[in-house]
Automatic annotation (TrEMBL):
Keywords: Amino-acid transport, Cell inner membrane, Cell membrane, Membrane, Transmembrane, Transmembrane helix, Transport
One MF term in the entry's GO annotations: L-leucine transmembrane transporter activity
Pfam families the record matches: BPD_transp_2
Major localization listed first in the record, in broad terms: membrane
Domain of life: Bacteria
Location in or out of the cell: Cell membrane
Record's protein name: High-affinity branched-chain amino acid transport system permease protein LivH
InterPro entries: ABC_transp_permease, BCAA_transport_permease
Segments traversing the membrane: 12-36, 43-62, 68-93, 105-124, 144-170, 199-223, 235-262, 274-291
N-terminal signal peptide: none
GO biological process: D-alanine transmembrane transport; L-alanine transport; L-isoleucine import across plasma membrane
Lineage summary: Bacteria, Pseudomonadati, Pseudomonadota, Alphaproteobacteria, Hyphomicrobiales
GO cellular component: plasma membrane
Record bears the keyword Transport: yes
Length: 305
């Protein structure tokens, strides 16, 4: 196995892990609410700016903006605040479209994403410009003679743990069982003394917090935070969820790995591939939807008229 092949393999799995953290949020929200929350990517990419703001605030107050403890605290605060923002957006905007036609919710959340991007652009200092974002961890580790960046190892391990924790929560906790009950039949859930409103808020918090981890990883992977990162990353995360089958957590992961694999392959083999990678990615999305509209692991829904 050559060093170049290993590097591309690491890039694929690292990028796929980042996309998966955002894609599972899309699928989770769709599975529970049956609404496409198109601004989920924009919510997720708020986290890097929130982390930079916390670092700056701590530096101004305590003069200790460069320590590891400050950085870790900023990341945790950013994840928590992003989760809360997801809940607030549901309370203020999205909940009003739960019984509305799907197109209304889609248009509303697209508009909401634009609002979030423009708020970052105008309220964050020099928000139109890229802001340097540090690597979450530096250094390399040598395994079997190959040098592997610790950042890639951390992204893969944390992503696997986060997804496993989500699956455990959905399948083995009271909250997870309530989420499944509400996603299957809200009226029956109410008869079982389950408050759908509380479940919706909990779902938004979980999905937004997991997406925030993906947003932080992506900015650290790119080395910068930009207000418009959420356009590409959010669209790719949504596309990965669609390719895998909206509402399917395993499908979102498979879709993310497929898209990240094609992205990495194009950049490695096609001349000027970085400029054309999205062309190939979305050709893949179109191809999957042409031959399997419900996604690779999605289920076709039959509506009685």
């Amino acid at each position: 196995m050559s060093e170049l092949f290993l590097q591309q393999l690491l890039n694929w799995i690292t990028l796929g892990s980042i996309y998966a953290l955002i894609a599972v949020g899309f699928s989770l929200l769709f599975g529970v609410l049956n609404i496409i929350h198109f601004s989920h990517g924009d919510v997720s990419l708020l986290a890097p700016f929130l982390a930079l703001s916390v670092i700056s605030a701590i530096g101004s107050a305590l003069g200790d903006a460069g320590s590891l403890g400050t950085f870790l605290l900023a990341l945790l605060v950013a994840i928590a605040i992003t989760g809360v923002i997801g809940v607030l957006l549901d309370l203020v905007v999205i909940q009003r479209f739960r019984q509305a036609p799907a197109m209304m919710a889609l248009v509303a959340t697209v508009a909401l994403g634009i609002v979030l991007r423009e708020l970052i652009r105008h309220l964050f200092p020099n928000g139109s410009n890229p802001h340097a974002f540090p690597r979450l961890v530096e250094g390399d580790v040598t395994i079997a003679g190959f040098t592997i960046p610790l950042f890639s190892v951390m992204v893969i391990v944390v992503s696997v743990l986060a997804v496993c924790a989500l699956f455990f929560m959905l399948n083995n906790t009271r909250l997870g069982l309530h989420i499944k009950a509400v996603s299957q039949d809200r009226d029956a859930a109410r008869l079982m003394a389950i408050n759908p409103g509380r479940i919706f808020r909990a779902t938004f918090f979980v999905a937004s917090a997991i997406g925030a981890i993906g947003g932080l990883f992506f900015s650290s992977y790119a080395g910068m935070a930009r207000f418009d990162f959420s356009i590409d990353v959010g669209l790719i995360g949504f596309s990965a969820a669609v390719v895998g089958g909206l509402g399917s957590m395993p499908g979102a992961i498979i879709g993310s790995l497929l898209i990240a694999g094609l992205d990495t392959l194009v950049q490695a083999t096609v001349p000027n591939g970085a400029s054309y990678r999205l062309v190939f990615v979305f050709l893949l999305v179109i191809g999957v939807l042409v031959f399997r509209p419900s996604g690779l692991m999605g289920r076709s829904l039959v509506e009685k008229v």
